[in-house]
Write a structure and sequence with these properties.
Radius of gyration: 19 Å
Structural class: mainly alpha
């Protein structure tokens, strides 16, 4: 059964796909692509607001929800929108990938911090961010030097800025990814760890293509990464998620209250934006099969999380 929320976001994703097609045409020096970009981007926002109300009531529903959105939009949602917007120029400026990637991840980090602060206060939000970032940085330093827990890899080719050789966006990403995964998992650390691992399925081929890290493991499974890498991501992600839940249990235990029209987004929305843009980025660097696998794996992860939440 297609729920109103699923219909809304499905149509929004389709409109973004239209804009993405336009970007591919622009890259191929076909000016018509600009028209698809100009059509797809605003349509994605329109469908995200009222895609479930197609028909005679569409205009009135769109106006009502737009007015409510302006009145009720929390700061974190604005930062999330900025994170998404910073990904859009990548197809048209591939040389700026490292700068846009850092800015987008930074905006995603601020979105997560603002989301946590709105619900648990700035003190707990800062503790959550510190835990995830420091744990993420520590495990990356250990992993890149010893091969534990991810396998043999190096940050020698990573673009600046870095923290002790680790790209800055990596510890920032550990916080944002874990927070989004834990929200989508309904506060279950083991499931959050699995969702974060699904995320990494797309990160590995994209970020190695951009030279953020290089694998030298003798037993590669996917984009140079061994099976140990994904087991390590699950274990580390689960551990960080467990620690975050211990610090702020109310942030994850409380069920999201749906508003009358079902428009009550949580930070789990970040997972779905990445499920669209990660495969898109892989298409742009010519990794079509990896894009398909990433979209499938992240989609299955979201379906599993939905099933687990409904069964509880």
């Amino acid at each position: 059964m297609i729920t109103p929320s699923l219909l809304r976001w499905g149509l929004a994703a389709a409109a973004l796909g239209l804009a993405f097609l336009g970007a591919l045409l622009v890259i191929g020096e076909r000016p018509a692509g600009w028209g698809l970009i100009a059509l797809g981007l605003p349509l994605s926002g329109i469908f995200a607001l009222a895609g479930d109300a197609l028909g005679p009531a569409f205009g009135a529903t769109l106006r009502r929800r737009w007015q409510r959105l302006l009145a009720e939009t929390p700061p974190w949602l604005g930062w999330l929108a900025l994170s998404v917007a910073l990904k859009i120029p990548v197809p048209l400026w591939p040389e700026g990938f490292s700068l846009l990637g850092l800015l987008s991840t930074g905006a995603l980090f601020v979105a997560g911090l603002s989301y946590a602060a709105q619900r648990a206060g700035w003190g707990q939000a800062a503790q959550l961010a510190a835990l995830a970032c420091l744990a993420g940085l520590g495990v990356e330093l250990l992993g890149s030097r010893t091969g534990v827990p991810f396998g043999q890899y190096s940050y020698a080719t990573a673009p600046a800025p870095t923290v002790l050789t680790v790209p800055l966006l990596v510890p920032l990403g550990w916080f944002a990814f874990t927070l989004a995964g834990l929200q989508l998992a309904g506060g279950r650390p083991w499931l959050a760890g699995l969702l974060i691992t699904c995320w990494d399925v797309g990160l590995e081929p994209l970020m190695t293509a951009q030279n953020y890290w290089r694998w030298s493991d003798p037993h590669p499974l996917w984009a140079g990464a061994p099976v140990q890498n994904f087991l390590g991501w699950w274990a580390v992600g689960t551990a960080i998620a467990w620690g975050m839940k211990r610090l702020a249990p109310g942030l994850f235990d409380a069920k999201e209250k749906q508003k009358a029209e079902g428009f009550s987004p949580s930070f789990s929305l970040a997972y779905f934006t990445e499920a669209f843009f990660l495969p898109g980025g892989l298409v742009l660097v010519g990794r079509l099969s990896e894009a398909g696998v990433t979209l499938t794996v992240m989609g299955l992860g979201a379906l599993l999380a939905r099933g687990v939440r409904r069964a509880s």
